[in-house]
């Protein structure tokens, strides 16, 4: 079993009276209310339910690239919030600005605010990407494309500052200059500027718009090419806040050893890691000879009992492996439901009808079971210390005479003043 000891904080809460005297032997009820680690998923399915249908032709593509309006949105939302504390929202340019100057900002902002009100960490994805760029870009010169792209990044980040302060600044830059699946102006620009300059464009434009933003370099290409790009970007002085590592495992679980090796390689850069896009199938595995996952097209791709059992086993093994590495700060699963899933793959944790797969229950037993504290009754020691052995995160401590919510990230005592006369 993976060693997750580095995730446990050995939290300490000191109960004292108004004079500062430790309350030895005082009783307290402790209950965890949130994880510090980011357990995420995509929120594409919720946009139309929360913010209404798009009023710009073409904007609905936002939802359909790995999500769709749920059959029962309220039930889906309850299942989501029961498990996840982080969400990725889509800012694919073709859907976000299908006509130049007309954006889907209002709906995305309403959706982001809905998640923020429920204490969910929000990431925007992505600011720069060659796929799903608007067709109107093709009529512009490279100089005009660069100007428009810089403005797109700057304006989007600025307008969402304070609501979304975490972004995949650029997506899949390794393949960017050599992408051939469809003609697009961003690849054309990258062919003249090069990968590092494109990364610099994305990061600098976003940083100028919101100096407090955290910006991620994200890629599916986990070869040495990605390592070289990271090194070149750091050598060029680009401030990268975290490295994104995609693991769409449509062709089968990579296994604990391979995942651990991947994490070790990218942790060597000394930056936090985000497992940005993870999928595990509960149906037939995609054939190994497929190079581009988008090239696998079938009429039906059902979830099966055998596949669901396999997915549940693999998701537990994957999450344990990822959390065992101290460099990883979040893991985002790519799709909560099979309804409208990316590529039609049975990768969701819920079936298309909204019922829970074994993988949902297995993950729930970790996040809200094995890795969760409380409610439990504890007794303070002679120094008034209530010792909490749990994962880093937020806890509610109730002594009866005082109640407080505290963030526990290490063993430094958090003090709660208890007034016995207030009982």
What do you see in this structure?
With 423 residues, this protein is α/β, with parallel strands linked by helices. It folds into two domains: 5-26 and 380-422, Immunoglobulin-like; 37-370, Glycosidases (TIM Barrel). It is built from twelve helices and 15 strands. The strands form three sheets. It has an eight-stranded parallel β-sheet with strand order 5-4-3-10-9-8-7-6. The longest helix has 19 residues, at 142-160. It is globular. The relative contact order is 0.20. The mean pLDDT is 93.
List strands and helices in order, with pairings.
Elements: E1 11-16, E2 27-35, E3 38-42, H1 47-51, H2 61-64, H3 73-83, E4 86-90, H4 93-96, H5 105-116, E5 121-125, H6 142-160, E6 166-171, H7 185-193, H8 195-209, E7 214-219, H9 224-235, E8 242-249, H10 256-267, E9 273-280, H11 305-323, E10 328-333, H12 358-370, E11 376-379, E12 385-388, E13 393-398, E14 403-408, E15 414-417
Parallel strand pairs: 1-15, 3-4, 3-10, 4-5, 6-7, 7-8, 8-9, 9-10
Antiparallel strand pairs: 1-12, 2-11, 2-13, 13-14
Task: Give a short summary of the structure.
With 423 residues, this protein is an alpha/beta fold.
* CATH level-1 class of the largest domain: Alpha Beta
CATH fold name of the largest domain, please?
Answer: TIM Barrel
Mean pLDDT: 93
Number of domains: 2
Form type: globular
CATH architectural name of the largest domain: Alpha-Beta Barrel
- Give the SSE order as H and E letters: EEEHHHEHHEHEHHEHEHEHEHEEEEE
Largest sheet, described in full?
8 strands, parallel
Number of separate strands: 15
Distance between the termini: 45 Å
Percent helix among the residues? 25-40%
Low-confidence stretches: none
Family: Belongs to the glycosyl hydrolase 10 (cellulase F) family.
Catalytic activity: Endohydrolysis of (1->4)-beta-D-xylosidic linkages in xylans
Domain GH10: 50-366
Protein name: Beta-xylanase
């Amino acid at each position: 079993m993976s060693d997750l000891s580095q995730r446990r904080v050995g939290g300490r809460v000191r109960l004292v009276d108004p004079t500062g005297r430790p309350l030895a032997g005082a009783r307290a009820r402790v209950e965890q209310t949130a994880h510090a680690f980011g357990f995420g998923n995509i929120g594409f399915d919720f946009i139309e339910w929360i913010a209404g249908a798009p009023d710009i032709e073409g904007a609905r593509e936002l939802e359909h690239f790995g999500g769709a309006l749920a059959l029962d949105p309220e039930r889906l939302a309850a299942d989501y919030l029961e498990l996840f504390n982080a969400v990725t929202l889509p800012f694919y340019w073709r859907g976000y600005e299908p006509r130049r100057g007309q954006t889907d900002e209002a709906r995305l902002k309403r959706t982001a605010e809905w998640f923020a009100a429920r204490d969910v960490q929000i990431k925007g994805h992505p600011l720069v990407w060659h796929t799903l760029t608007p067709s109107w870009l093709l009529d512009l010169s490279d100089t005009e494309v660069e100007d428009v792209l810089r403005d797109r990044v700057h304006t989007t980040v600025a307008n969402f500052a304070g609501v979304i302060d975490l972004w995949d600044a650029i997506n899949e830059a390794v393949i960017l200059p050599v992408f051939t699946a469809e003609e697009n102006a961003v690849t054309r620009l990258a062919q003249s500027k090069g990968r590092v300059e494109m990364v610099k464009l994305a990061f600098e434009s976003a940083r100028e718009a919101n100096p407090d933003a955290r910006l991620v370099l994200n890629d599916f290409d986990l070869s040495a090419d990605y390592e070289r790009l990271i090194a070149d970007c750091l050598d060029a002085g680009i401030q990268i806040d975290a490295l994104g590592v995609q693991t769409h495992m449509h062709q089968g679980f990579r296994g604990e050893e391979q995942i651990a090796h991947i994490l070790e390689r990218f942790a060597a850069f000394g930056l936090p890691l985000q497992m940005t896009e993870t999928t595990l199938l509960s149906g037939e595995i995609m054939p190994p000879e497929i190079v581009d996952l988008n090239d696998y097209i079938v009429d039906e791709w059902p979830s099966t009992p055998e596949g669901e059992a396999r997915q549940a086993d693999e998701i537990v093994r994957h999450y344990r492996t990822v959390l065992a590495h101290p460099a990883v700060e979040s893991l985002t699963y790519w799709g909560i439901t099979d309804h409208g899933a990316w590529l039609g793959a049975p990768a969701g944790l819920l079936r298309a009808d909204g019922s829970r797969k074994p993988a949902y229950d297995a993950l729930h037993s970790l996040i809200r079971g094995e890795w969760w504290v409380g409610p439990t009754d504890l007794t303070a020691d002679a120094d008034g210390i209530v010792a909490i052995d749990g994962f880093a995160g937020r806890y509610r401590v109730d002594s009866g005479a005082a109640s407080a919510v505290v963030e526990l990230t290490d063993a430094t005592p958090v003090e709660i003043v208890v007034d016995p006369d207030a009982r």
